[in-house]
Protein 1
Amino acid sequence: MLKNFRKNLLQLFLIIFFLYFLVLVFLYFYQRNLLYHPDENNYSGDKISVEIKKVKIQTSDNIDLLGWFHKKDLNNYKTLLFFHGNAGSLENRIYKLNHFQDMNINFLIIAWRGFSGNNGKPTEQGLYEDGKSAINWLAEKGVDEKNLILYGESLGTGVATHLAQNKNYAGIILETPFTSMVDAAKTFYPYIPVNLLLKDKFENHKKIKKINSPILILHGEIDQIVPFTMGKKIYEIANEPKYSYFTKYDNHMMEYDEKLVLALKSFLKSLN
C-alpha cells in the first residue's frame, strides 16, 4: 500500500511538473503578447482640441512610425516628446494632449511599432530605436537636446529612462514608472522565474542614476498594475533636481485633473 502511495505521489508530481513546464514554455514564447496590447482601447471618443499635424518618422530599420506633432514655437518654447504606455493608440491619449495646449510647449507623440497601424512588432530594443528616431526627427527640425523634455507613460518610462542616460535634456517626466519589468512581472506571476524567462527587461532602476536632467515622478498609491512602491523607489534613487506628484487615490491611469496639470505646469516653468 505504501509502495502504491509513493508511486501515485510520484506520478502526481510528474504531472504537476509537466504542466508547470508547459506554462513556462507558453509564457516564454507568448510573453510579448502579454506585455504589449496595441489593440486595447481605453478612453475612446475624445475630441482633440489642440492643433496637431500627422507625421511619419522613419526608423533605422525602415519602419514608418505615426506621430502627432504640435508646433507652437520651436525657437522660444521647449518641446515635449511623449512616449506612451503598452496599450492602446494615440487617440487614447487625447485627454492628456488637450491639456498641453495651455502650456508653452511644442510636443510630439509617437506610436510604437505595431501600434496605431504601424508595421513591425514591439520589443525592448525596437522601442528604444523608435524613441531614438523621434529624437533624431526633432533634431532635424532644429530641436536641441537642451530644449527637449522626455515624457514617459508607464511602459514609456522604460524608453525615456534608457534614452535620457548621460544626456543633457531639459527635463524628464515619468508617469507611473516601474523599477524594472522583471519586478513588475513578479507582481502578476510570483511563482514564475520571470528573471530567467523575460526578454524585455526595461531596467529603470539601473539607469535612473545616469540621468542628470531635472526629473518629475507622477504616481498614484492605489496603482493596481505598477505598485506605487516602484514609483517611490525610482524617485528615491533619482538624482537632484527631482520633484514628485504622488496621490492617494490615483490608479494606474492617473486622473488628469487640475492638480496634476498644475504639477506639470510648475515643473515645466522650473525648466525655463
Note: The two ends are 81 Å apart (CA to CA).
Protein 2
Amino acid sequence: MSALTRVLAEVKADVAAARDRDPAAQGVSTFEILTSWAGVQALLAHRVAQALREAGVPLAPRAIAHLTRAVTGVEIHPAAKIGGEFFIDHGSGVVIGETAEIGERVTLYQGVTLGGTGFQRGKRHPTLGDNVTVGSGAKLLGPIAVGDGAKIGANTVVVEDVPPSATVVGNPGHPVKVEGKRVEGPDADWIHLPDPIAEAIKALSERIADLERRIADLDGGEKSGGEERRLRSRTGRSSAGG
C-alpha cells in the first residue's frame, strides 16, 4: 500500500513537471497528458515496474519495460533510479541504463542516451544531479557524474564528469559558460551556446594575421595577399524561442 501511495505521488509530480516545462501542455487536463504524452507514459510505466521489482516480482518489471519501449520509443531499465518531477520531452529514442541515477527536476529531450561503455559490471551508467537539462541527441556514457544545475547541449557526447552549473557542448563535450553567467533552469536555447572550438580557431586566425602584419613591417615589404575573414557569432532570432 505504501508503494502504491508513493507511485501515485510521483506520478502527480511528473504530470506537474510536464505541464510546467512543456508549452504544449498549458491548459491541458491531467487525463490528456497521461494518455497523450509519451514521456509521461514511459515514466509512469517505469514507476510501476520499479515498484514491482523492489517487491521481488519476477518477469513483470522487464515485461513492462519492453512493452513501454515498443509503445513510446523510450527505454528505461526497471532498476534505474529516477527522482521526482522528471520530464522527458517528446521522448522518442531516449535510453536510460540499469545503473543510471537521476536527481530531482531533471529534463531530458528526445534521443538522449544515458549509457555504459564496454562490458564492465557494477556502476556503469551516468549519475545526474538535481535541475539538470540534457539536449536532444546527447550521449552521456559511463559512470560519470553530472553536477546540479548543469546543461548538456544537443548532440553532445559526454564521457567525463561535469561540474555543477556548467554548460557542456561538442564532441567530446567541453564545459563552457553562457555570457559568463551561471546557468539558470531548464533552457532549450541550444543555438546560442558558445562553441569553444570555433573560438579557438578565431583566436588563432587573429594571431596569425597579427604576426603577418609584424613580419611585413619588419621586412619593409607588402602584407600577405591572403584574404582575411572574420569569424562572427551567429545572430538573429532563436528557433528555440530565445
Note: Residues 196-219 form the longest helix (24 residues).
Protein 3
Amino acid sequence: MAHTAMSGKGTTPGDDPLQTAVWRLRSRACWADAAALLEPRAEHDAGAALQRAALLVERCLYTEQGWAEAEDALRTAEALAHDDTERGAAACERGQLAYAATLHGVRDRADEARAALGRAAALIAPGAPGRALLDFRRGLLAENLARSPQAARAAYRRAHAGAAAHDDPLLLSFTWRHLAGLALRDGELAEARHGFAESLRIREELGYLVGTAPALASLAEAEGEPEASRLRAEARRLFRLLGGVPTWLAAQLAPPPPAATA
C-alpha cells in the first residue's frame, strides 16, 4: 500500500516518525489510537485514508468490534483512490472486512469478499507490492470459507514469495504461520514446527505484540510437553495483558478441564 508523503512502515530506524508511532500503537492493539493519528491526512490523502481503513479493518478481525467505523473509513478510502493501485488496495481491504464479518458470524458476506478480492486481483499487477497481501487474503478465503486447503496452500506460497521479494517481514510472519498450520493438519510436524517458530521469531523481532500470543499458541500445537504448556502459559499472559485480544484466541487458550475423579 502506498503511504503518500510517509516513509517506511514504522518498523525500522529512519522511518517516518508518524509511521513509527502508528506501528507502535497498532502492535499493541491500539488500532483506534493509531487511526486517529492518520485522521487529519486521511480526509484528503488517499494513502493515509487507505492505511487508516486498513487499521480499522484489522481491529474488526482481532476484536469483533468497530464494524461501522471501518465501513466509513473504507468508503472514504474508496472515494479518494485515483489510480488502479489505490483502487486495488481499497478493494483488498473491502474483501478483508467482508471476510472478517463472515468469519465472526456477524453477517454472511462471503460473496462480497470473493468479489472484492477478485476486483483487487484485476487492479493490482502481478509482482506489485500489494499483490502478496492480496494473495494471502485469497488464501484465507480458500482455507476458512471455501474449505479448500490445496487452494489455500498455493495462495499462501505465492504470498510468501511476494513478501520475501518485497522485504515484508510482517506478512512473512503470517504466511509462515498459515503454511505451518496446513502442514500440521497434514501431520508434517517438523515442517509445522519450523514455520510456527519462524513466525514467532519475526513477530518478536518486530515487536508485534498483538500477534505474539497467536504465534505462541500455534507453536504449542506442534510441540510436546512440557514445552507446549510453557508456550500456552506465555500466550495466556500476553492475551490477558492485551485485554483479551485477539478475541478468537480465547477458546484455544482455555485451560483444560480438571480431570474427573471417581
Note: The chain has a mean pLDDT of 92.
